[in-house]
TrEMBL record, chains A, B:
<keyword id="KW-0804">Transcription</keyword>
<keyword id="KW-0238">DNA-binding</keyword>
<keyword id="KW-0805">Transcription regulation</keyword>
<dbReference type="InterPro" id="IPR036390">
    <property type="entry name" value="WH_DNA-bd_sf"/>
</dbReference>
<protein>
    <submittedName>
        <fullName>Transcriptional regulator</fullName>
    </submittedName>
</protein>
<dbReference type="GO" id="GO:0003677">
    <property type="term" value="F:DNA binding"/>
</dbReference>
<dbReference type="InterPro" id="IPR002577">
    <property type="entry name" value="HTH_HxlR"/>
</dbReference>
<dbReference type="Pfam" id="PF01638">
    <property type="entry name" value="HxlR"/>
</dbReference>
<dbReference type="InterPro" id="IPR036388">
    <property type="entry name" value="WH-like_DNA-bd_sf"/>
</dbReference>
<feature type="domain" description="HTH hxlR-type">
    <location>
        <begin position="12"/>
        <end position="110"/>
    </location>
</feature>
Length: 128, 128
DNA sequence: TCATATAGGGATAAGTTTTTCCCCTATTGC
DNA sequence: GCAATAGGGGAAAAACTTATCCCTATATGA
């Protein structure tokens, strides 16, 4: 497992939420768990672009940060279910605010993001 | 300048906001610009843990994403001022929601974050 | 004359995250 | 025996981000 070499700074509130929410897929994991997708394989199907490995890692971090709990059923093949903790549930309105802002500005966001990427010289398959 | 090798996926709203908000210091930059700290040197003083270089890069990305504008005064020594665009201003309530959540849960957040870091085996100077 | 302030950028190194590949468990069904 | 299923983890490579160092330019003040 990777060991940090630099101590994160935890001065202000925004540092703290950054620590628990950074990670490419964490917000989506919380969101989908909240929507009722509890099993790792379900979550992987909902987030197919993420590697299986990374979802496991980020789920474990969410668990260490007490935002989700993991319940293991002693059956074969194994069954695992994640749920939001009470603490984790308090984050849902915040994530909803993020999602709502994105939805309200979706067109513009796509434009500015694509303009930047295309201008940079990556081949972007223009889907229309 | 760095060229991406992987095309980001922009499927859902959460992908979009991630594109413009990811970056270690971007949220804080937006916040401080909103509070009236406009000049690069002021922002660097407000965020001393960030390198000068990275702040420049992230400010430029915020500009490309149309969240801030940059005004250059043709004087010597140079003077530059950043301001939020109207689009950028719409993000402030969202950032405020993040900050408010962090503040409400500050103690708990510090605990779970420190527990994880200390448990991992980095030397953390225990400040009390 | 020399340091300081101001804004910025290139090159490279270091750090961190994510992906990819392969392996392990145990059971059911063919 | 072999494949499929479900969950997981180690190792290494690739991708990405951030830090460090050094450079530009001009004006002011010690």
């Amino acid at each position: 497992m990777y060991e940090r070499k630099i101590i994160p700074n935890l001065n202000c509130g925004l540092d703290l939420i950054g620590e628990v929410l950074y990670g490419k897929w964490k917000i989506r994991l919380l969101w989908f768990i909240n929507e009722g997708y509890k099993r790792p394989s379900e979550l992987q199907r909902k987030i197919p672009d993420a590697s299986r490995r990374v979802l496991n890692i980020q789920l474990k971090e969410l668990e260490e940060h007490e935002l989700v709990t993991r319940k293991i059923y002693p059956v074969v093949p194994p069954k695992v279910e994640y749920s939001l903790t009470e603490f984790g549930k308090t984050l849902i309105p915040v994530i909803a605010a993020l999602g709502q802002w994105s939805d309200e500005h979706e067109t513009r966001l796509r434009n500015v993001i694509l303009k930047q990427i295309v201008g940079s010289d990556l081949d972007v398959p223009l889907i229309n």
